[in-house]
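Example protein as discussed:

>
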Amino acid sequence: MTRTLWDSTVGKKTVMAVSGLIMLSYLVVHMMGNLKIFFGAGQFDSYAHWLRTIGEPFLHYEWALWLIRVVLVAAVVGHAVCAYQLSRRDLRARPSGYVHKRARASYATRTMRWGGVILALFIVWHILDLTTGTVHSGFRPGHPYQNVVDTFSTWYGNTIYIVAMAALALHVRHGFWSAAQTLGVGNAARDRVLKALATLLALLLFAGFVAVPVAVMTEVVS
């Protein structure tokens, strides 16, 4: 039964919807945490330290953070695998051999496809930049505030981040509405409200995340 559900189009869309909502919930919390940078280095660094001590003394140092990471990795992998498999299934289902060229994929489909690729590449860069410091020459372990300021003091750091957040906003806008349809929440009566909510959520996430590099560029945060 489980195998049949996984192999079905409905099952894969359900996995994408649930994993997408898990990632969206994380993004909202992550954005709110990022905004603590406006309260100064002490507040931001304390918040970053608190993330590693969640659940103590019941949980050991960073255990809760690693549990969150495992859930997120599972959500990202499940989302990406199902998206790829559905895309391949859609291509195989298209008729071929006609004289006229096949119609191009819809704007939403192209946006989701390329947006997903951009976000996947960004996640790798973001981790290497601000978590491990691999691509961050001036990385200082235990000083997240200064590391963030350093990253957004460079043109390429800002460019990569803002482009990725634009892709994220477009992805969320279509993905939220699509998830609602898959999970049976959407219908003709709620369609306009859901689309408005998806747009509002996408704009809030974009504004919240981009506020940090903009603040560093304008020296509101330094």
Remarks:
- The longest helix spans residues 63-93.
